[in-house]
């Protein structure tokens, strides 16, 4: 299954076995500007779709990372705590935020594919 | 939404525009806030601050008239010198802060905050008296060139800046454009503010930006630069509910306007402000260094170990020169004096903070 996108500008990459990796899109990181701090949830936390799970701080303002799916957070990218600039430099790779074990895998169907997301941000 | 005469130039430079005080203004350019900030600290940044209010006061008793509205010595302000001042209200609070330049010939030039300029203009019209003409200069723009290379850049265009010191002003023809140049700014760095006719603003901006040392800098970095420099911002450190003494701007209150001074009082809220000066106040405005990397922002409450609220953050964010979060807060003097362990509350977390003296970075003004 290919990578999916949320209206809150997160990407969700399915890794099999109902596991996904979540980060923010390039569009989102460009809008936020230089990031200076990322407050991550803890591995083991539950998240439900629409819930604020992380705070992303740029020089100017704090923004929420909204869970695009529900499940259990199994891993967080601890490097972001000291190197928030990873998100700016490589938002779709090294700058990933969390890995989640989905509790409702069907939620993925509500997310956009790449072309739908491209149209979404061009609106 | 209003725009400045450099609007298209900002768009062409790739600026991200945001609404600010009724204007669409550049918050940052493609370089980004951090790099724009550091460029200003190391080279020279060009800021379009034409949204700010430029006002000219004229009339025979102009200095006395303005003195009736500010707790500052205007009468003895020398020719072509600038002074920082504050419009007060009857409760001793602050309506706005401003820069005053004595242009001579019974004229004063004021630069006021964009968000306050309409209120200031009405305040002046209403309070300053009939002998004084208040003129809003809406056909003038304002450019700021700030940073350690600002002088060299401007000197290439005009040697007239050679003898200028911090807080002085001069009429200078730059490339045939009549400008009012002051050596001042809002970044803590050496630099200039240039007031000029709007119709020539783009021409001067192009001249300045064509210098390799100069980059456009937006309002985002303007705020982080002033925060590091410990400079007050209206609506944050200054507001209608706190006197200048409670905002630690005692240095801006001229001694001749204080108790025992030859022209003491005689401005709105004078009794409150002189009382605060004479008897002291409970709070002061200080620098805050939060532990760790999480920024502590405006409005965050400050508590002591027992959980008692002892202050509030007035401005907070990240200092790109320090690579650390920094903030300014109004805090109970008692809790600073007795060295209580203090915490800022951010999203329910208690972040240990250290109280420090302002500014966070050394001010690099050129005093000659």
Determine the mean pLDDT of chain A.
Answer: 94
Note the gap between the termini of chain A. Answer: 26 Å
For the secondary structure, the number of strands of chain B is 19
Specify the biggest β-sheet of chain A.
6 strands, antiparallel
The overall pLDDT of chain B, averaged over residues, is 97
Low-confidence stretches of chain B: none
Strand content of chain A: 35-45%
Give the end-to-end Cα distance of chain B, rounded to a whole number of Å. Answer: 42 Å
Order of helices and strands of chain B: HEEHEEHEEEHEEHEEEHEHHEEEEHEE
The number of distinct helices of chain A, counting runs of at least 4 residues, comes to 4
Query: How many strands appear in the DSSP assignment of chain A?
Result: 9
Question: Numbering strands along the chain, what is their spatial order in the largest sheet of chain A?
Answer: 1-2-3-9-8-5
By DSSP (H or I, 4+ residues per run), the number of helices of chain B equals 9
Indicate the structural class of chain A. Answer: alpha+beta
Q: Which oligomeric state applies?
A: heterodimer
Model description:
Chain A has a 6-stranded antiparallel β-sheet. A 3-stranded antiparallel β-sheet of chain A has the order 4-6-7. Helices cover 20% and strands 37% of the residues of chain A. In chain A, strand 6 (52-58) and strand 7 form a beta hairpin. With 123 residues, chain A is an alpha+beta fold. Chain A is globular. Chain B is of the alpha+beta class. Chain B contains 9 helices and 19 strands. Chain B has helices at residues 7-12, 33-42, 62-67, 117-127, 150-157, 201-209, 219-228, 270-279, 333-337; strands spanning 16-20, 23-28, 44-48, 53-58, 82-88, 94-104, 107-112, 133-136, 140-146, 169-174, 177-182, 191-197, 214-216, 283-290, 301-304, 309-319, 324-332, 342-346, 349-356. A 6-stranded mixed β-sheet of chain B has the order 10-11-12-9-3-13. In chain B, a hairpin with a 2-residue loop joins strand 10 (169-174) and strand 11. Chain B is globular, with a radius of gyration of 21 Å. Chain A binds chain B through residues 33-34, 36-37, 39, 55, 57-62, 81-82, 84, and chain B through 16, 27-28, 32-35, 37, 220, 223-224, 293-295, 297, 317-318, 320, 325, 347.
